[in-house]
Amino acid sequence: MLYALKIATRYLTASKAQTALLVLGVAVGVFIFIFMSALIGGLAEFILSRTVGDISHVTIEAEDRDPDILIAPGGALLAVIERGRTRQATLAEAATWVPLIEAVPGVVAVSPQIGGAGFLTRGAQVAQVSVTGLEPGRESAILNLGGYMVEGSERLGSGTILLGRRLADDLSLRLGQTVRLQSSGGVATVLTLGGIYDTGNGMIDASGVFVGLPTARTLFALPQGVTRIEIRLSDLNAADTTALRIRALTGLDAVPWTDGAEQLMEALDAQAQTGYFLKSFALITIVIGVASALLLSTYRRRPEIGIMRAMGAGRGFVIFVFVTQGALIGLLGGLFGAAMGYLALLPFPSRDAFEPGTLPMDITQGSYGLAITLTVIGAILASILPARAAARVDPVTAIGQ
Amino acid sequence: MTALLEVSDLYKTFGSGEAETRVLRGLSLTLAAGEMAALLGPSGSGKSTLLTILGTLMKPTSGRYEMLGRDLVAADDRALTEFRNLHIGFVFQFHNLLPDFTALENVVFPTAVREGRETAEARARGRELLVRMGLEARVDFPSTKLSGGQKQRVAVARALMNRPELVLADEPTGNLDRDSAMQVMELIAEINRDEGTTFLISTHDEKIAGLCRRQVVVGDGLVTG
Ligand SMILES: Nc1ncnc2c1ncn2[C@@H]1O[C@H](COP(=O)(O)OP(=O)(O)OP(=O)(O)O)[C@@H](O)[C@H]1O
Ligand SMILES: [Mg+2]
Prior knowledge:
Helix content of chain A: 40-55%
Shape of chain B: globular
Strand content of chain A: 15-25%
Oligomer: heterodimer
Distance between the termini of chain B: 20 Å
Strand order of the largest sheet of chain A: 2-3-8-5-7-6
Radius of gyration of chain A: 33 Å
CATH superfamily of chain B: P-loop containing nucleotide triphosphate hydrolases
Shape of chain A: elongated
Mean pLDDT of chain A: 88
Order of helices and strands of chain B: EEEHEEHEHHHEHEHEE
Strand content of chain B: 25-35%
Strand order of the largest sheet of chain B: 6-7-8-3-9-10
Mean pLDDT of chain B: 94
Helix content of chain B: 25-40%
Low-confidence stretches of chain A: none
Number of strands of chain A: 10
Low-confidence stretches of chain B: none
Number of domains of chain B: 1
Number of helices of chain B: 7
Number of helices of chain A: 13
Radius of gyration of chain B: 17 Å
Bound molecules: adenosine-5'-triphosphate, magnesium ion
């Protein structure tokens, strides 16, 4: 109703200072809402990227099958099973699975790997290491090795090995020097140090080594197949569903990263809950502020409301005038608050460049539209009580002849 | 002359028990179309009460009220709101104009609220009425910046906006000096003469009452003369 809108805007512009304060109050609420959204969203992003950004999102491990037990006919048997030290469980048809998995939507990279234990020997020094064979050309598919190199290159040629900085320091190895790697199965080979990395992860830096897949095949006597397939997704949160899909497609036991990450998920969940809680309070503050301001205005304008009613304005018209005021305040405060929030978030580094010690604000997660929508809805709800009070004004007592 | 409105056996009692005030006690009154009547009576005699009941802003405790053939006692709020808008104009003593609006915006309100917007026709009629009230130079003035007499003339123009059959004025000149009061009354008399609009005007002023062709006197809750 155009005319009710005109009267509502006139009421708002008639007391400019009061309206400005009210809009500012709403804007601060919206600002807090947006700030909290950006902080909680950014924090979750930050924590996830620090904890699982660099690990496999869905992993398929070869199952260690226990040997069959032969039970003597008619007799009880006590079997002590010792796992073969050299026996490796394998995903024999890895070559067939990889292209299939790569075609699953949301899969960014697939890395077939051979993993095992070994000893690194240089002169008299020996270090126990965990060996991972990566397909040359896919060195950075999961762990961003390329990004962590401090010396040399992550390219894994034949006869090349990559070490963490801690391990290289422990063995006083320098780029281009050779080192002897012996697998737990006893196969040994001599490799050249092609690169040194620093991932920040103590385990990987101190006891992990990377070799090319062909080298790993020789070391672990696996002419074909792999022991593990690691899969990286575009969306971390899609791990559960994508794992199910891969399982259905290949029949392999695809495990999402969320398995075993319950504590992390709980922590993130609690953090999100805190965010909702604070945001709800911001909204409640807005609703209370708008309601009380409009109720006051209703009271102050009683004589006018009485005149309008006497002149033939219906109750619905009066309600519309006050609800429109609420909606306008919500919209103005929402837009203003969203603009303030955006401007306040601009100086924070983008999500790819979070620096330790600063708040990991994510300007893209400000929920601006949601903040404005909820504020307008909240302000409309807040204006219903004052609007009804206004519509109930008795013209006779209000005009007070 | 045909009767515009007829009230009979009107009772209005405020409060109950100790605080009970019986203001109207079986009052009957008929106003013919085109009449210009003064409503007289001592303070507290129920003039304002009668006007608000006639203006459908308040229901009587009992009694009948018919205007233009409609039973206005039985009608609901929605119907009465529409009826008021179309058929009854008001001029009050205080609190007459909407303070955040100009003279013209005040005048066109009764039409705009019905049509949902301020049409060009409505504005033209509002302007014409203001000119007629001698307020040509005050059309777009904020209503709060008008003098008392100017405010009451704007109120009269607004009361006439929807061409109502009846205009109820409760001490319209009570706040004005003699000259302004006479000016407002002369304009009312002119409208009554030219357009045949019925006026019922409460006043304490014998001179003002003298400008009306009929005097209705209330006392003891009844019309006494
Ligand atoms: N809402 C109300 N509640 C209780 N009593 C009321 C109410 N309205 C009016 N009265 C009483 O009714 C009586 C008549 O009041 P009313 O205002 O109609 O008188 P009036 O003739 O207009 O007086 P005045 O000339 O002073 O304006 C008064 O005694 C007043 O106190
Ligand atoms: Mg009175």
